[in-house]
């Protein structure tokens, strides 16, 4: 069976997303018709995963502009390049504020802003005969649409490339002859988090496709439960042998199973290799180092933020306290509503006051794993390892050499 896609574009202008708050029990598509709805879907985590949120934000811009270009009469903001810029630039800023940690969202919005500002400047500097203001605005809108659609789908091919690069690298590292590898992953990095195949989950899929995987282990990943709700669904859909563990069981797993690697995605990687990823990744890295298990980050080069020297510069999102006090899912034993859907519930697992008391909950959505604990960073262009005796990576050099 094919893995579920987080975003499906029905035609040029219509975007549907799978509401990930309801998975794995209900597959409900939500139509995203406006930029505000895209912002809300990202902020409320109906869609999540670093590449996927960059894709949705970009596609919502494409859809808005595409409808505007086709409308009769056209909206006022298409009267000139300047009015288009005045309308779109704040929307890009606004989408960027939906979630701060993943570099992809900001990078996507900056890419679109660059297309916009360069085209506006080119129009201002053009010599005679001048293109009319309206035609120029429409041409710029079409350029932005093309770039946004590119962003919306370009990571799938990169995911396939990096999964092969990383999978072959690990296979060689363990001696090449070893056939069956056990790996642990954290969070969800598959099709639901990307435009397809996945990063760390792509790596696991590749090992499975090559007949090299014994078993994928994955943490539940509280409090949103990306592992138990989403990674489990994807692994089962792909028929990959897998075992879920609670977040508290990583140390025990490493003590009792022969593990070959921890493989995770990334929301942002600093120049020295320090990596922000889902909360709990750092715990797994510390334990992997203690047990001498390879710790591998798999992410596109667009997740590397060369403007940030180390992890201390990565903004970490803190989610609302109440989210850590609730568990979301279906009733068990199941009961069904009139539409035949399993009834969903959110269960409070703390005294009510905990989520409402100032300082009552600590709920960072991500942590930073220091480069020192990372064995390799795999992108679509390179497998970076540290130089002998060094505690950090040199990702600027890797980028220049790639
Ligand atoms: O809060 P989320 O679910 O958006 O966090 C996602 C992660 O941390 C993923 O591991 C990361 O974005 C990589 S997705 C390919």
UniProtKB/TrEMBL annotation:
Pathway: Amino-acid biosynthesis; L-methionine biosynthesis via salvage pathway; L-methionine from S-methyl-5-thio-alpha-D-ribose 1-phosphate: step 1/6. It is found in: Cytoplasm; Nucleus. Pfam families: IF-2B (PF01008). SUPFAM superfamilies: NagB/RpiA/CoA transferase-like (SSF100950). It catalyses: 5-(methylsulfanyl)-alpha-D-ribose 1-phosphate = 5-(methylsulfanyl)-D-ribulose 1-phosphate. The active site is at residue 267. The record marks 187 as: Transition state stabilizer. Gene3D superfamilies: translation initiation factor eif-2b, domain 1, Translation initiation factor eif-2b, domain 2. Its EC number is 5.3.1.23. One of its GO terms (biological process) is L-methionine salvage from methylthioadenosine. The keyword Nucleus applies. Its main location: cytoplasm. Catalyzes the interconversion of methylthioribose-1-phosphate (MTR-1-P) into methylthioribulose-1-phosphate (MTRu-1-P). This is Methylthioribose-1-phosphate isomerase. The lineage of its organism: Eukaryota, Fungi, Dikarya, Basidiomycota, Agaricomycotina. The gene is MRI1.
